[in-house]
Amino acid sequence: MNSPAADPLIQVAGLTKHFDVSSGIFGGYEFSLNGLQFPFRYDPEVVRAVDDVSFEIERGETLGLVGESGCGKSTLARVLLQLLEPTAGDIYFEEENLAELSSEALRQRRKDIQIIFQDPQSSLDPRMKAGAIIEEPMQAHGMLDAAGREERAKELLESVGLESQYYDRYPHEFSGGQRQRINLARALSVDPEFVVLDEPTSALDVSVQAQILNTLDSLQAEFGLTYLFISHDLSVIRHISDRVAVMYLGELVEVAPVEALFEDPKHPYTRALLSSIPVPDPRNRGERSVLEGDVPSPINPPSGCRFRTRCPALIAPAEHDLSETEWESVRSLLRAVSRRSFDPDDVDAGTLRARFFDGPLSDAHCEEVIDQAINHAVTGRWDQSSSLLEREFSQKSICAQSNPSLERIPTDRRVACHRHHVDGGDGTRGTGGTM
Ligand SMILES: Nc1ncnc2c1ncn2[C@@H]1O[C@H](COP(=O)(O)OP(=O)(O)OP(=O)(O)O)[C@@H](O)[C@H]1O
Predict the structure, then answer these.
(1) Mind listing the pLDDT tens digit for each residue in 275-303?
(2) Would you say the CB of residue 165 lies under 6 angstroms from ligand 1?
(3) What is residue 278's DSSP assignment?
(4) Is 41's pLDDT higher than 70?
(5) 232 lines ligand 1 (CB under 6 A)
(6) Could you tell me the distance, in angstroms and rounded to a whole number, from the CA of residue 333 to the centre of ligand 1?
(7) Considering its fold, how many domains does the chain have in total?
(8) Is residue 222 a part of any domain in this protein?
């Protein structure tokens, strides 16, 4: 961590979770018999779900965690909750390293960390009444006697916006929003310090969502709770968070106070995410999204910056002598070829070139490469075209050569982007234009 938080409740250092998904019973192993190599080699396939993630959560704050589906948010939450063992890294709770606790101390600590899942239905046992559901964790931790637990369960029902007489009702007698409130009461029953909310409102109607978010706000104040709020819904994240961590392909790319992040996103991925929020303007019907292409596989993520294959701000290779406008045109061609976004039957080399470039490039080598790449593309040789562009341009960019770490930039945030790790930190130095 670059700089410790004022009063961190949770500190996460270099947290990593990889899943071995090698197929077959011998997946992940290489055989050798009497020094001879087995004729088949099974390369381990590893999903890099969470990779070297470090952050802290201050006591009493809500840290929002946002990112596209599959970027590792839920895995991170499960590792934090000790539901999954980390591959590497440490989690400190009130400065205690959870990995170093005895099993009894860890059992006690588990009480302090609770989770609320997305689907309020499946997490409630249909055969149990609300009261018993809320009391179950207290019983497991030996808290209070039966009468004390009942009293506490009834108080909690009221704290979460229900009525104490609901104590004897079964889950099917409640609406989706009410069931999520019962989950909240159950999580709060053991008096936790930290609650992970994993898409807690995604399965609910919009009007119910807002009510639950308001309840979460008041519960935080009443019980002094610290939240990690996971969502892919940026408007929910903006409503609830004090700070926001943006995750892409297993890594954190930006961590910033909520308003700073929404008003002035620094990482190109954050910018792309924010610009894909639908604009509620009837004249502007386009749901503008600059998030082009698919998320690469976490089994084989791109070298260097993992966002570089979709990044509209890829930095020009230092060895090329291109103007900003020229590099922008090269970048557009790179993205168009990798997305195969034109039909080779409908376009000849001259027309395609004119779509991206005003005239010949000032760098003779680049000019030659672009010519070849365009010729490959218009004859349907997509792979040759994209590997040539990848080799001559993308791979030579610093973005492909080293993975930018999450560094504090001269504002109030941390960003993992080479563009911001330069003097001034405004991300505009060097060839490549502004983002
Ligand atoms: N048990 C597992 N075994 C193998 N791969 C897994 C396992 N759990 C998650 N993954 C993979 O890890 C990556 C991260 O998944 P995760 O569910 O953490 O992402 P997420 O951001 O929470 O996505 P979503 O918003 O869709 O829930 C994905 O590629 C997923 O397929």
Answers:
(1) 876 544 444 444 444 677 778 999 999 99
(2) no
(3) P
(4) no
(5) yes
(6) 32
(7) 2
(8) yes
Tell me, what's the ipTM? 0.98
Give the lowest-confidence range in 125-134, 166-175, 282-291, 306-315.
282-291
Q: Is residue 342 part of a domain?
A: yes
Which range, 3-17, 154-168, 406-420, has the best average confidence (pLDDT)? Answer: 154-168
Please check whether residues 72 and 212 belong to one and the same domain. yes
Q: How many angstroms is it from 188 CA to the middle of ligand 1?
A: 27
Do 69 and 199 belong together in one domain?
yes
Range of the domain at 329: 324-396
Is the CB of 88 inside a 6 Å radius of any atom of ligand 1?
Answer: no
SS (HEC) of 324-388: HHHHHHHHHHHHHHHCCCCCHHHCCHHHHHHHHCCCCCCCHHHHHHHHHHHHHHHCCCHHHHHHH
Gap from CA of 75 to ligand 1 centroid (Å): 6
Question: What backbone phi and psi angles, to 5 degrees, belong to 203?
Answer: -90, 5
User: For residue 215, is pLDDT > 50?
Assistant: yes
User: Using an 8 Å Cβ cutoff, are 314 and 324 in contact?
Assistant: no
Q: Is residue 11 part of a domain?
A: yes
E strand or H helix at 262: helix 258-263
Is the same domain home to 216 and 257? yes
In a domain, 153, yes or no: no
The pTM assigned to this predicted structure is 0.87
